[in-house]
Write a structure and sequence with these properties.
By secondary structure, this protein is α+β, with helices and mostly antiparallel strands. It has helices at residues 35-43, 53-64, 90-101, and strands at 17-21, 26-30, 45-51, 67-72, 80-85, 103-108, 111-116. The protein has three helices and seven strands; from the N terminus they run ββαβαββαββ. The strands form three sheets. The protein has a three-stranded mixed beta sheet with strand order 4-7-6, with helices on one face. It has a two-stranded antiparallel sheet with strand order 1-2.
Length: 117
């Protein structure tokens, strides 16, 4: 397998990150990137700011490496604000999220089921 030298010029400014696709050997820019998310991740803080149900599910999947399944009234308008340190286990985080948003959860192995009432 041969690799050719490729030169790319990509101008980045504040709140823009570069994404590289190995499969097609191209760069792309992601606009509107919230740098505080990366800072919080590096500092070990899981922070939700006006997060919707799909955003909560995605963050929990990324943070804890679980598969999140949404059931019940998944169209319910949820906007959650909260901050958790890296030492908080998933059950502790879910107790807070479930209590505030009127939902139930079940954690079995690597699968988290959120049931919205």
């Amino acid at each position: 397998m041969e690799f050719q030298k490729m030169h790319y010029l990509l101008r980045l400014t504040t709140a823009i990150i570069a994404l590289f696709s190995i499969s097609v050997s191209t760069f792309a820019q992601s606009k509107g990137f919230d740098i505080s998310r990366m800072d919080n991740w590096k500092a070990g803080r899981l922070i939700f700011k006006d997060a919707t149900l799909p955003e909560i599910a995605e963050e929990l999947q990324n943070w804890y490496g679980v598969k999140v399944i949404l059931t019940g009234n998944t169209s319910k308008k949820i906007h959650f604000n909260g901050e958790f340190d890296k030492d908080k286990d998933l059950r502790s985080v879910m107790k807070a999220i479930a209590f505030i948003n009127g939902m139930n959860y079940d954690l079995e192995g690597e699968e988290l089921t959120l049931t919205v009432e």
